[in-house]
Structure prediction request, 262 residues.
Amino acid sequence: MKNRITMAAAVTALIVTAGCGLASAGEKEPVGAPPPVSVEPTVEETTQEPEPEPTTPSPAPSKTKASKKPTASPSPAQTDWSQVPDCFDYVGKNISKAKAKTALKKASGRIYWRTEAPQLKLNFTLVKAVSWQESGWQSAIKNCDGGFGLMQVMPDTLDHMNQRFGLAYDATGNHQDNAYAGANYLAWLTRYFGDRYFKESYDLSPSKCKSHSSWCLLNVVVSGYNAGYGTVDAAAKSKTLPNPDYVDSVRSLMADCPCDKY
Prediction:
């Protein structure tokens, strides 16, 4: 009996063990497979890059061209002439300072009133100073106001001199004529003002003037060359010069002119 019970128990245990190995009809459960694990999507952490700070672009290197050596063309950049006009141009080429000096000397030595006032004489000191003040002894310079050449002769002044003396000065095409026309105008002003205000005296000596601004023939003639005789006439009652700075500059050049080195 005991053996039967033992056999029955063994059979039962065998059946139970065999039944536990069946998952379902025709299916086998994989042995040793790990239980399914739900995998959550991993979020990749991104490190935010800092925004680039605005940078000021460095200035591009300047493309300056190398300065060329000065050419021999006419130029007002002569360091010894300080009366450069605000507006001017050149017509042709300047003559040398030596030729300019020769032309001015010839003009200052001419007698312009041979019959009416032969005693009236100019001097080189006056003519050279006026020319230096006006043009820096540049024969080809043309001011925007119309003045031209060594003596900066104005078109109206040229016409007046040519008509009054029956001449044909070519102040724009001939540097010697330009010097003659300017000096002739100085002589005409000397005669005009000498007769009108100085009892027919034509003495242009600086010794007749108390100062560069006093009412004397020399100062009045210089003033008239720049301002015009009509403007000087208008100031005659008060015996004042309408352009004292100009007169002072010319008078100073008469005493000490950079042109003296030429």
Q: What stands out?
A: DSSP finds eight helices and two strands in the chain.
